[in-house]
Amino acid sequence: MTLLRLDGVHASYGEAQVLHDISISVARGERVAILGRNGVGKTTVVNACLGIARLRKGTIAFAGQTASAIRHFTAARAGIAVVPQGRRIVPGLTVRENLLLGAAVGRSGRWSFETVCELFPILRERADTPGTAMSGGQQQMLAIGRALMANPDLLVLDEPSEGLAPVIVDELGETLVGLAAGETSILLIEQNFSLVHRVAERYYVMSKGAVVEEGRLEGLSRESLKKHVAV
Questions:
Q1: What pLDDT, in 10s, does the model give residues 86-99?
Q2: Where are the domains of the chain?
């Protein structure tokens, strides 16, 4: 069953059009990646779904409702949780307080402070530590945990490997595959071929605001994926 679908989407910021005839879908429990160089419009795909970028043409639907009913400040309540590029841990709040922000939308589900800490034990150990005092990898765990606390149907991650050591990226990949097995859909916006190859089932490649390649990851080598992205 399709959870998120964009059909023929054109989107802009003001008069500057960024997306050109984009069609992308994510099924329930599926792991999908959007790849491409910086500035090609990957994040704008998400911003169009959240009403941050203006939809000029085409349709966007999430969980059976048109995206016109969803805005960035209501997305978590609708079932979309975003782990933004740069993590955006709230300064001045502890790890526990940052996590509880995610639960403020009041959606029920499997994720709570306890279950998130089972997934990322370091968050329980550092629960009373300022969130911004942790390492980059720990902050990424906190950002993902905060998003999970909203019990989303779709988890969107924007460049989650940025600034992380390879061993942490490998651990992140295992975590994301496990989340999808628990029926949380994943939309991964990423340039790290290793993480995409490990996590995604399908991929879309973007260039200059358009999808120029798409396919399944099954049977596709990391080297072939790099060639697909080198557009």
A1: 888 999 999 999 99
A2: 1-79+154-160+188-231
